[in-house]
Amino acid sequence: MSRPLSRALAELLAQHEVLREIMTSCERLASELEEGCLEPSLLPREVARLRVAFDSHNRYEEQFLRPVLADIDAFGEVRLDHMVSDHVEEHRLVRAGLDASEAGELRLTLDRLRDHLTAEERYFLSSKVLREDLVSVESSG
């Protein structure tokens, strides 16, 4: 993997970690709010922080991944088509869920976002997908 490609991959994975940290914070705050132990304005602020981080990540990801996935191998166009259609719908659902006023609905959205990040890491941000060589040779032994 070239240095710019590996740096971009590392940046995307780091962004995923930040998103997960904010999601954990949102879940903690939602629980505290339900228990009556939290000032009500803190959870919406943290959800807004998550929304900004999610939107920023999506812009970076699509800017980086579109050209890379289109040219990476013979399956690039198929992978790109899948990413675009999946992303558009998934991002719409996550954004709508982040507007939820109930803690339970917010938790469902956070679970959906976690699943989305895991799928991205498996299918788009894997070092097996984002590599310089067109043929992967695995040694047995």
Describe what you observe in this structure:
With 141 residues, this protein is mainly α. The chain has one domain. The longest helix has 32 residues. Helices cover 75% and strands 0% of the residues. The protein is built from 4 helices and no strands. The radius of gyration is 18 Å and the shape is elongated. The C terminus is likely disordered.
Topology readout:
Blueprint: H1 3-34, H2 42-71, H3 76-98, H4 103-123
Helix pairs in contact: 1-2, 1-4, 2-3, 3-4
Give a brief rundown of this model:
The protein is mostly helical and 141 residues long.
Strand content: under 5%
| SS content category | mainly alpha
pLDDT averaged over residues: 81
Count of DSSP H/I helices: 4
Percent of residues in helices comes to over 70%
DSSP summary, beta strand count:
0
Query: What is the molecular shape?
Result: elongated
The major beta sheet can be summarized as: none
List keywords for this structure.
mainly alpha; 4 helices; about 0% strand
